[in-house]
Amino acid sequence: MRVANVLAVILVGTAALVSAPAVADDNKRTGAVVPKLAWTDCGGGFQCANAEVPLDYDRPSARTIEVAVVRRPAADPANRIGSLFLNPGGPGISGIEFVRTAPPPAFELFGQFDVVGFDPRGLGASRPALLDCGNNPAYGVPMPRTSTVAHKVFLAAARNYGETCRKVNRELLPHRTSRRSA
To answer: From CA 70, how far away is CA 55, in angstroms rounded?
Structure first.
């Protein structure tokens, strides 16, 4: 099952390669700066770097944050095509761990690509990290949901959890969106 999940994400990532020229055109229009990465060996055939990116992409020259990145260089460097970015989805899932723990056949299947993953802003090795919001009430809900869940109690706990998160992560949380995960 894990191999199937990894391959599904890789296939979605491959489809994203088709849109890469459009992203490059957007960068030219908006003046977005592509971070320069200083790759270092981080063991197991992987290289690590930190990308300095704007906290708020609407104000790119204001405060910056670091997004942690990992790559496994192409197994077939002579025929390298480019980079394949993997994002396992989430919320809250480390793209670095996803790439580092991918089954070896995934790297063989995409041997002409550098396989790249990142920890979304505020998570994992990215800095600054989100502050702990306490116990997430969703972890206490039985799956599948049963009629024994006290909905009003759960909603009150979820509301409190969300409010606590918003307060302790006031600066970073507004800039953690699907569009702005890196």
So the answer is: 20
Residue ranges covered by each domain of the chain: 2-129, 133-182
CA 141 – CA 143 distance, rounded (Å): 6
Write the pLDDT tens digit of every residue in 97-147: 999 998 888 888 888 999 999 988 887 888 877 777 777 777 666 555 666
pLDDT value of position 133: 75
Tokens describing residue 98: 């996803």
Instruction: Report the alpha-carbon angle 43-47-49, nearest 5.
Output: 125
**Backbone angles phi and psi of 84, in degrees to 5:** -115, 110
Q: Which two tokens stand for residue 62?
A: 């204001």
Q: Is residue 113 helix, strand or coil?
A: strand
Angle of helix 2-18 relative to helix 20-30, nearest 10 degrees, comes to: 50
Whether the model clears a pTM of 0.70, i.e. scores above it, the answer is no
Distances from the Cα of 35 to the Cα of 6, 49, 77, 128, angstroms: 27, 11, 23, 17
Amino acid at 39: W
